[in-house]
Amino acid sequence: MDLLRSLPLGLYLEQPQTWLHKLDPRVKVVWLMSFLTTYILANNLWRVLLVILLITITLIARIPRRVWQQQMGWLLILCFFVLLIAAISPDGYGINYQPRLPSTESAQQVFSGVSADKKDHKESHIAQPKSAKSYKYILFSQGPFTVTRRSFDLGVSLSTILFTVIYSTNLYLLTTAPEEITAGMEDLMQPLKKLKVPVTEITLMLTLSLRFIPLVLEEFQNLIRSVMTRAINWKKLGFKGTVKVWLIVAERLLENLLLRAEQMANAMVVRGFTSPNEHRVQWHELRLTRRDAFAIGILILFWGIRLAIGTQLP
Description:
Layout: H1 3-6, H2 25-37, H3 44-60, H4 65-88, H5 104-110, H6 116-124, H7 130-134, E1 138-142, E2 145-148, H8 149-175, H9 178-188, H10 199-229, H11 234-270, H12 290-309
Antiparallel strand pairs: 1-2
Pfam families: CbiQ (PF02361)
Membrane topology: Multi-pass membrane protein
Transmembrane segments: 29-60, 72-89, 154-174, 293-313
């Protein structure tokens, strides 16, 4: 079991260097925020297109298959089950509608005096819309399972949003080094300094948190291996014994993480990091290239298509 290799969520891929790695981090931040905001008030067609676009970018970037295959596969399975559960769930329209026309028996009693010729003449002038026969609100009904248009649309919306939020963020972290993320965020947040916002402190904490993710996975992995090597008979322990063992593991994990955090803080103090403003570190040199200009042009086209076909009609 190797979490750092089998499921590298939030980890930076150093090799190979793809064209996504070479983009400016500020441009990638804007692209990420676009993915996280365009699905707001969007129709399901646009949300499905976002999923297809993310998968296409992954394939075009030529990211190694071993990196994205397992995490994308598990995420797609999760989204499929979300779609399935939401589709077969009640749609919230549990209303018994009263029919607009009376029943057949009462209609015969009321209109018994009307001749059949007049009825036929009247009905011949009523034009039925063509779409009335093809439209079906209930898409599938078999036993206790019923899929309506509203429940299916809700399932598509939830599953696509879940995939877009998780995978777009993971793809950004996969192709952007923590130092580049820090430099890009600090440059974009420079106007906030006029409002006396501690931009440098925030970016420093962001860098430390990104560096801490692999340490958390490593500690968790080591504890799981230590439990597996002891060959514990879980059946003899029972429910209480199993809960007690995992509580001990969780307590040990918290102690190890706090110890790692203390070691990191001591290392910064020894190196003289008493204040971020006094000990500035140039994380990454920011410079826009032609590749970044092309990405910005595609981003403008991306938003144009979103406004043209992606807006949800009331």
